[in-house]
């Protein structure tokens, strides 16, 4: 899988780079700002137009983000995805991507949602074991998740 961004996880002062962006202490090209969220153009995009939706408050991961804020983050991403499609940027589709935890590819410990314009041949792939699973295996997974709710 292509790296989503290869930015250092902190600013030169050691603080969270996304917190610094959210407070205006680090430069960024903003496409959305409100009291709770900022959305910026990714410094090292997968494709041109790649955006990041960032909560201004520091939340290291999805579990620490209040559910209402998570819903709002996706609402903002939805609006931005529609806006990307109305631009003249190459955009035949959109991926919303959230890496939650190091094992999932999260490099900056501040939850953020990628809004990535996609087009045929853009080179971004997610490689996995996509084989069809048995109904029994699916039922076992479903039972485990239901039990954890």
TrEMBL record:
The active site is at 112 (tele-amp-histidine intermediate). GO terms for biological process: nucleotide metabolic process. InterPro entries: Histidine_triad_CS (IPR019808), Histidine_triad_HIT (IPR001310), HIT-like (IPR011146), HIT-like_sf (IPR036265). PROSITE patterns: HIT_1, HIT_2. One of its GO terms (molecular function) is catalytic activity. It comes from the Bacteria. Residues 17-125 form the HIT domain. A motif (Histidine triad motif) lies at residues 110-114. This is HIT family protein. It comes from Amycolatopsis balhimycina DSM 5908. The lineage of its organism: Bacteria, Bacillati, Actinomycetota, Actinomycetes, Pseudonocardiales.
